[in-house]
Fold Glyoxylate reductase/hydroxypyruvate reductase.
Amino acid sequence: MTEAPSTTPKVESSEENSSEEETFKILVTHPEVPQEALDLMSRGCKLIMCESLPPNRTEILQKAKGVHGMFWGSHIPLDKEVLDVAGPQLKSISTMSAGVDYVDVEELKKRKIPLGHTPIVLSDAVADLAMGLMLSAARRFHEGRTKIDSSTWENYHIEWMWGQDIRDSTVGFFGFGSIGQAIAKRLKGFDIERVLYTTRRPIDKKLEKQFNAHKVEFHELLAQSDFLFIAAPLTPETEGIFNSTAFPKMKKTAVLINIARGPIVNQDDLYTALKTNQIFSAGIDVMNPEPLPANDKLLTLPNIVITPHIGSATKRTRTDMATIAAHNVLRGLVGEPMLSPAY
């Protein structure tokens, strides 16, 4: 069980000649935060709840003034405007997400406001979904369903609906942190040949041995991977790196899986790569924009499987994420190290 902050979150009243204590106020930007997290924060703190669904920036700005902490439960940009509106008493923020690409991290650092996030805890759920995307893209689940819907079974052809084998394959990872390693752990039961990965720094030698993993340059990752998982954060360096230059370097039998962030892939170029069979297929849980419009051209392709960013969408995982975020906020309020700091 995660330990709560060692002191009850309170702040001395700033009113003249007053010795009373004022309760910390925490802005909760999403009305559906799991109750376990709300119960945790409400012990000694006043929760300022946003009610809009989907979360609304206008309401957030209206309710942010004067709060001491923020439980950021959406991907609405957390930027200088929000911090200015909140005021100088703001001292603790946590997102309920692993990625913080929608947060102006440098502005928070400049103001010396600690930021928490919730990686690691969602790794297993995201890895499970990644395996599903790999299997469904490799074995043409979506295309097979369309054949059923249109009554165009052609199983009299021996080569009908042939997919890609996972056994004896080379599996590549663009990014090989906790999510990538959770996927690699699950792949052990599929008798793959080896793991390649591209990261800024090599992982621990013991982990390399455990996963039979080898660090390679990006161009080698593209050329040698039969299955390629994107599991890296979105940064200026990774944005759009899978593009019209990268796709022709991949095997024509390659399967691409993206469970990281949509903008890492140039979607127009992905469409072309799939349409012209530069790669075999793709499975994506993230896209750009989100929500993806119903008339997006990617949805016209038979060789892509798309899920609506549900990698962490299990009751256990989302509750754990919310609880960690709550602990982060509470610890920041009393000046203790956050359970899961973003920096």
About this structure: The domain at 25-98+316-334 is CATH 3.40.50.720 (Rossmann fold). The mean pLDDT is 94.
